[in-house]
Structures are given as structure tokens and as C-alpha cells.
Amino acid sequence: MGDATDHHKPKDNEKPNFYTKRNMAIQQVSESAEKLKSEFMEQMEVKLAAVINDVVHTMQEADAVDRYRINTSSTLSSSSSKEPGRVSRKVSVTGKLPEKVFVSRPSPLTELLRVTHFRTIHHIFIATLILIMLHTVILDLLEQNTVDLGLLRLMWAFGRPQMTLGILVALEFCGLVVLYPSFHLWAKLRHQVKPELTKMIDYIGALCFLIFLTGMMVIPGAIMWNNPLPPASGATVTMEQCRLLMKIYAFVRSNVPRVVKHTSSSPSPSQASPSKQKRQQELSSVSGKSLYPTESEEDGKERQEAEDVTKTSSSPSSSVQRRKRNGESAIFNTKKSEQEQLKSSSSSSNNVEGERTLGSDPNPSKERGAAWISWSDDKESCPSYSKYLYFYVAPTLIYKDNYPKTSYVRWDYVCWNFAQVLGCIIYANFILSRYSASYFINFGHPNHPMTVLQFCNAVFSMMLPGILGLILGFFLLLHSWHNAFAEMLCFGDRLFYKDWWNCSSFHMYYKTWNILVHDWLYTYIFKDAWEMGLAKYHKALPTILVFVISSLFHEYVLSFAFNFFFPVLLTLFGGFGLALTFVKNSDSASGNILMWLSLIAGSGILVSTYTMEFYARINCPVRIDDSAADFFTPRFWTCNAIVWN
Fold first, then answer.
1. What is the Cα–Cα distance from 220 to 164, expressed in whole angstroms?
2. pTM of the predicted structure, to 2 decimals
3. Where is the composition biased (Low complexity) (predicted)?
């Protein structure tokens, strides 16, 4: 037994070699652990620095708002002490509100649908749609011996396609062909005329722009007034009309200060003195080069920059970004990578989009401002037409010269999003036909009055279809539709909404439900009103102005979609919705329950009341000869469709 146990013990001559190997192994393990520790600490430092930078940036933005409020109160007190009858509108630079910053990032649902649990909820909605379609097919076969699937109702809702396309083409023509040349002409004239004539040019330009916006608003409405469109066609025209109005105003509002600053800082050659022009000609003749670059020089520079961009895109960093992009997520881990992406997107948009002039000028001394379209943003006050065109079709309402972009287009992702759009339309059609139509198809008929009990039962019965329609409309427009166009245009910032379903107050709900419209209202309405001094009278006035404008546009869309004015949405959104924004809930659970309760109840009221008025206009004969009075007078009341006793 002793020999057996001693067999595994090292012998005396093997002891030094054994301990040497053991020490070497321990040293290797220690070195590997130290190396792993250093790498881990480096990664943690990078991520921690990124988080700290985000926190500091958020605190700086909040501090800017606080400083502005302090400056506003001090300015108001000083102005009231000096001149009681005058209110100062001057805002300090430090007091300006923060602006929209575009960062390449996916939509929240794109990230959530990667999780199995959320993807299962999406699958449940698809399975429910299949069951509803199967139910419709069986009922159609048993009742009518045909299969309809609601296609006739869809064809009626999207009826009168010739007039719809005609109005849309006219709107697009005004936005693409009329606006930009007119704006460029104003910028060029302002740059060329004498300084004492610039104010007259500005007044003429402002008057023309006001007439243009008025025509864009009034003419399509007048056409739809005289030739009513079906609901879906009318909603398509009015929503596109509102989108173009917001786009056009954003472009002009963002670039007017740029034109004014460019004109005041760099006078045009036509404004220079004769001696200065003669000196410039002498210098150009001696050097053999024009002071203004020719088309070939500009093309050469653009080709060189394009080659640089191509080299940059083939670098390892771009390949890493491309691998990240392949997984639908474009969020960057550090601020450095965000800056590199923004830099690459700006350079690619400047070069790849083809900023070249129309035709070459054989006279090198001829001024480049004479071209129809401005192409060089460094020398011209007006941005290039390619940038305006990209902004015109991009899924954003905030104008910037450059946006973060992705590296390529995933056409399967585009097709899937358009398929989801079609599925949401069919889904909503089934819900409306199976619930709303069955409840209110005889509403307003003289022989079928509705009692108060039936009315209350119908309103509560419409709450579930109403909230389903709200969710379907959100998913259709804000997720699928915008993500499809963002993918086709390689638009990087796809934060079209936030997690509004988790909000505990309507104050946050309105900020996260529709980021596109919220950013436009904040940037061009709230921010301008705040910085011009409207908040000096009362801090709630800019918010009230935003809600008034938003409510009017929402009511405008619904009025011309259904061809009657029924201000239920205006009352709920502009009245109760505005009041609820000032209610702050400390408890997130109770606040979220209250928000969903209000959304479900409001959706049921909207669906039931607008459906009642729609069928009352069909079943109840016209009792008002004046078409305008009939448009604004609800048949809901005049036809005595509800027996209140």
C-alpha cells in the first residue's frame, strides 16, 4: 500500500522541474487574468463615458431652459421698470431652447419585435386577422353565396381616384416646381440688389409666400367642398396637404435666417464698388484664374471628394458600421462613433447626391448666382435642390442640410413594411364593417329611433374597436409606412415615436405619440413663440398655441374626410386633452391606467359619434337649403335620431 501511494508523488530529482512548471502555469494564468481585467476595464470605461456624456448633454439642455426662464423673468422686470408700456422681445443666445438633433437609431418597435414575447403579440394580431377573414368568408358564402372580404367597401372608401390623383399632383407640383425656384430667386435678388432695396424684396417675398400658403390651403379645400370625396380619399388628400404645408414652412423658416446672414456677411460682386471690381478683374487676369470657380473645377473637386468618400467607406470602421447595420440596429455605443457616422453621412450626401450645376458656363467671370439652382452651400445662401428634394420625401418635418444615413437598402424589409400597411388597412376595414356598421347602419332613419339605453350601449361597445383602430392607425402610419420610406431613402433616424404606451401622464403621451409632428410643433411653433417672448405673459401660452393649431388641423382632416363638421375631436383634444397636459401623476402605475382609460373611452366616443353622424347624413333627408349651414350643422341633433325620454 505504501508503494502504491508513493507512486504518484514526485521523486527527489523531479521536484525542481515540477515546481518550475507549476509556477510557470500560475504566472500564465495571472497574466491572462490581468489582461482580461484590463480589457474589461477599458470597455467599461468607454461605455461609462458614453453614459456620462449623455447625462451631461441632457443636463446641459435642461440648464439652458432654466437659464432662459431666469433671463426671461429678469428681462421682463427690467423692461417693466424702464418702459412700462413696452415689452422686450429680445432673447439672449444662452436662453434659446435646444434644437432637434438627428441620430441614427431604429424605431422602438423594431427593437422590441426582436424579443420573443413581443414578437408573439405581433403574431397574435396576425392570427386574429386570419380568423376574422375566415369568419367573413364563411358568412359571405352562407348569406350571399359570394366572397366579398370587404373589397367593395374599400373600393368605395378610396373612390374617385381621378380627382384624388389630380389634387395630389397639383400639390406636388407646387411643392417641387414652384416653391424652390421662387425661394432661390428671392435669395439671389436679395444678394444682388442694393442694400436699401433689400427690405422691399423681403416684403414682396413674404407677401408671395403668404399667398402661396393660402392657396395651398384654400384651393384643395374648395375643390373638395364642391366635389366631395369618399372618406379614405379625402383623408389621403388632406393629410398630404398638411404634410406639404409643414414641409414647406419648415424649409422656408429654416433657410430665411441663413439667406439674411449670408447677405449681410458677404456682399455680392454686383454690390462691390467699381474700383474693387476693376481690381478683381486685374487679379484674375494676372493669375489666369477666375475668382469664381468654373464648372470643371467644381466637378473636379466633387470627384476628388467622392473618391475620398469611397475610400472612407471601404475602411474597417465603415465595415464595422455595415455589420452593425445588418442587424437593423443603428445605435452607436459611443459619442465618437456618432460623430463619425454624422460626418460620413454629411460628406456622402454632399457628394453622392450630385450637387452639380445645370450646364457649364464658358465665361469664367460670370457669376454663379445666375444659375437656376444653387449647388455650392459654401458660396450660395440657398441650399441645393438635391437637399431640398431629399428633405421633401424624407420621413421628417425638420429641415437639415444633412441627415444620418444607412449604408444600403434592405428591399425585403421595405416589402414587409408595405405588406403590414396593407394588412392594417384590411384589419381596420373588417373592424368597421363588423362593429360600427352593424350598430349604426339605421341611425337617423325616421322609423328606427335610438333610445338612450341603446346609445349608451353603442358607445361602450365601440370602445374596443376604437382603441384597436387607434393602435392600427399608429402601427400603419408611424411605424410601417415611415420605416418603409426611411429604408428606401437610407434615412438613419427612425425615432418616429417613443414608448407612449408606458406613459403615466398625457403631458408625456403627447410628446411621445408622434415624434414627427411633435418636433415640428416644438421647433417652429412652441420654440419660436417662446423665444419671441410669448411666455412672458404666461408660460402656458406657447402650449395653448400649439394645441390650438394641432386641434384645428386634426379637425380639418376629419371634416373633409367625412364631408361634415362635427367638432367632437376638437372638444376632446383641444379642451380636455389640453387640460390633462397640466396634470402630473407621481405614481406611474395609476397614471398609466388613467391614461389608457382615457384613451379607450375617448376612442369609443370618437368612433361612435362620427359613425352616427355619418349614417345620419345618409338616412336623414336634408332639411337645410344652404350647403354651408348644412356642412356645419350636425344631423345628429336636427334629425331627432335619439329619443331622450
1. 10
2. 0.67
3. 264-275
Alpha-carbon distance of 617 to 115, in angstroms, equals 47
Place of cell 400649439: 546
SS3 401: coil
Distance CA 298, CA 315 (A): 26
* Cβ atoms < 10 Å from Cβ of 595: 21
How many distinct helices (H) and strands (E) make up the chain?
28, 2
Query: What is the amino acid identity at position 298?
Result: E
- Span 456-493, pLDDT tens digits: 888 888 888 888 888 989 999 999 999 999 999 999 89
Q: Report helix, strand or coil for 450.
A: strand
In angstroms, how far is CA 400 from the centroid of its own chain?
13
Structure confidence by residue, pLDDT tens digits, 12-32? 555 567 677 777 878 888 887
| Spatial CB neighbours of 519, under 8 Å, sequence gap ≥ 6 | 100, 396, 397, 398
| pLDDT tens digits along 402-448 | 899 988 899 999 999 999 999 888 888 888 777 777 778 888 777 77
Q: Look at residue 206 and give its three-state secondary structure.
A: helix
Cell 465618437, located at residue: 336
Pull the grid cell for residue 384: 441645393
Rounded to 10 degrees, what is the CA torsion of 553, 555, 560, 565?
-150
**C-alpha torsion 227→230→233→237, nearest 10:** 40
